[in-house]
Design a protein that fits this description.
- This protein is mostly helical.
- The chain is built from 5 helices and no strands.
- The chain folds into 2 domains: about 45 residues; about 45 residues.
Length: about 110
């Protein structure tokens, strides 16, 4: 993979980028880190330094499965809603679909 040419206005080194990514990963999902880097730090893409954002996170030992976490949160929210609204049939159907998606992702990522 070829690295893109770094713009002259970007003064951040790769070591600084790694520190910022490690700090942002504590409180944010991977999809949000790229947006924050672009908007607040002026880094158009981590590929300028030769690696994708996922490679930096793996290098730092931070691996989360965002898709799995989102499915789990959705299932929990629907379960809570059904506890309060027992007769909501549409929500019950959505809960069943969310459970199915959750179990599929659990099997796919081999999570116990």
């Amino acid at each position: 993979m070829e690295t893109m040419q770094k713009p002259a206005w970007l003064k951040m080194s790769e070591a600084d980028l790694k520190k910022i990514i490690a700090e942002l990963a504590k409180n944010n999902a991977q999809s949000k880190i790229g947006i924050i880097l672009r908007d607040q730090y002026g880094v158009p893409s981590t590929r300028l330094y030769g690696k994708k954002l996922g490679a930096y996170l793996k290098e730092l030992g931070i691996e989360t499965i965002e898709e799995f976490e989102n499915a789990k949160n959705k299932m929990e929210r629907l379960k809570e809603h059904l506890g309060e609204n027992i007769t909501d049939k549409k929500a019950k159907h959505k809960y069943q679909k969310a459970q199915s998606r959750y179990s599929l992702l659990k099997r796919h990522y081999s999570i116990e």
